Amino acid sequence: MQIHSAEKSMAEATPDAQLFQLLSNLLQQVEALTNQEEVELRSKIEALGLEVTKVPSRSTQQLDELEIAKELDKLSAKLDDVDEMISSTMAADPQVQSLLSGTANVWLPVITANTEERLNFAASIGKNDTQTEEETSITN
Asked: How many CB atoms are closer than 10 A to CB 55?
């Protein structure tokens, strides 16, 4: 019954919350299997979670086309590196391929979100936090 409840709440959560819940659950499973606490990996997941939910600040300065092109080139290079890491890991380990394929519906919307979608994620997180606080105060 508790699993059903967790699945229901995960289905209602925002895509980024679903992704980080999945990562947290996977990390707990790895820690249980290895009997080792993965402090560094846990902190990296938490830092990534903060980065993903960060809403880009509204820049007051105007970037010229050359600066924008340079920034896009940097981002493209980073994405190429990530793509290479994922591709090589998937080729080397069928379990990784299966895991990524089976959970793509959770992580893909998060990493492909544009600025507007990230703003919506952040707004829905704030809305969910407010609802939770209201529900808690009503039940107390």
From this structure: 11
- Token representation of residue 15: 């895509």
Q: List C-alpha distances in Å: 64 to 68, 71, 79.
A: 6, 11, 23
pLDDT tens by residue, 73-118 = 888 888 888 878 878 887 888 888 888 888 888 777 777 777 777 7
Determine the Cα–Cα distance for residues 110 and 103; give it in Å rounded to an integer: 12
**CB atoms < 10 A from the CB of 10, how many?**
14
Provide the 10 A C-beta neighbour count for residue 115: 9
pTM over the 0.70 mark: no
Phi/psi of residue 97, each to 5°? -60, -45
Say which DSSP state 37 is in: -
Does residue 35 come out as left (phi exceeding 0), alpha (psi in the -120 to 50 range) or beta? left
Q: For residue 20, give both structure tokens.
A: 């980080």
Q: What is the mean pLDDT of residues 20-46?
A: 86
